[in-house]
Amino acid sequence: MSRPLSVIDSSDPLACLLALREALGGGPAVLFRGGGANPVSTAPLEVEKRIALVVETSGSTGAPKRVALSADAVLASAAAADGALGEPGQWLLALPVHYIAGINVLARSIASGTTPVVVPPGRMDAATVLAAIDRMTERTRYTALVPAQLLRLVDEAERASAQGDHALQTAIGGFARILVGGQSTPAPLIARALALGWRLTRTYGSSETCGGVVYDGRPIGQTQIRLSAEGRIELGGPTLAEYYLGDPARTERAFVEADDQRWYRTDDAGELVDGVLRVTGRIDDTIVTGGLKVRLGDVERIVREQPGLTDAVVVAGHHPEWGEVPVVVTTARPELAALRRAVGAVLPPEARPDRIITVDALPLLPSGKPDRLALGRRAAG
C-alpha cells in the first residue's frame, strides 16, 4: 500500500511542524523543500505506506539523495535525544527545516509537546538571537547549530563581553544543551565556547540515521556502532532510513544485513577507543602523494586548529611531480611555511600542505556545509 507525499515549502517552519505532526500520525508523508521565491511542485507523489518523511540531502561530496524515513525512525530519534539530554524542553530553531537537523528540532518539539521558537533566516547576530531567546517560555531550553553558526556567536559574545556586555554570553549559557553537528567542529572553537560557560554536545549522524545518533562519541538510544575491516563507520538501530527513493542500487550499497541486524555503511572512517567513536575522515579522502597515502581529514583537523583557520578546508590538488597533494582553501592568509611546520609536527612530511588558496568566501551548500566538490575543482584547476 502507498500514501501520498506532500512537497512543502520550508520557508514557514511552524507550518512544517503541523505537517510533520500529521505525517507522524498517519497522514500524508512530507518532503520539505527550500525554495525561497521559487514555487514548490505540487504534483501528486506517492511513497510506501510506512514512509512518513523524505529528506533531500545536500550532496556535499556527491550526488544528492532522497532519504525515506518511517514514522517509527523519526520518533525513535526524538526519544533517543530526549534520553540523552535528560528531559524534554523547548527548542530554539536556528537551522533550515529542509535538512534533517532542522527537522529533528520539529520532531523533538512534537514529542515534548512544546513549540519551537524560530530564529529568522539569514546571518545570525546577537540582536536576532537575543530577541528569539526572549520569546522562549519554557525553563529547559535546547538548540542545535552547525559550526559556522557557533563560530559567529562565539565571536560576538567574546567581543561584547570584552566591552562589558554579557547579555549574549548569559542568554546562550542558559541553554541546557547546545547540539553542534553537520560537520567537524574544530577543537579550539569548542574550547572557546566552553570558556564562555556554554554547554556543548558534538553530534554525529546523517539523514540516513535520522540525524545525530552519536553524542560526544557515544551512541544514544538503541544505536549501535561498528567498524568494518577498512575502518568504515557503520551504524545500526531503529532510526535507520528505509531506502533511497527511486534508487534501489544505491540503497543496496548503503544498507546491509549482518549479525542479524541492519546497518548503514557511512562514508566516514573512524576508530573506537574504550567505546568512544572518533571520526578520522572520509573513506574516500585518502590521496596518494609521491607513492605515499595521506588522509585529507587528518590534515584538515590540524589546519583548523591553527589560529584564524577554523573555516579552512583541505582538498586534493595536482602536482606535476608528486601527483596529488593537500591544498588548503581558506578566507584567511596564513603563512604556508608555518602551516607546513604545524602539520609536519604531527603527521608525516608528505601530509604537509603544498599550497594555500585564499578566497573571499567559501562556496557553501544550502545546508551551510562547504561545497567540497567546487573546492576540489578549484584546487585541481
UniProtKB/TrEMBL annotation:
Superkingdom of origin: Bacteria
Domain AMP-dependent synthetase/ligase: 48-220
Record-annotated AMP-binding enzyme C-terminal domain positions: 299-369
GO molecular function: acid-thiol ligase activity
InterPro entries attached to this UniProt entry: AMP-bd_C, AMP-bd_C_sf, AMP-dep_synth/lig_dom, ANL_N_sf, ATP-dep_AMP-bd_enzyme
A Pfam match: AMP-binding_C
Xref: SUPFAM superfamilies: Acetyl-CoA synthetase-like
Name of the featured protein: AMP-binding protein
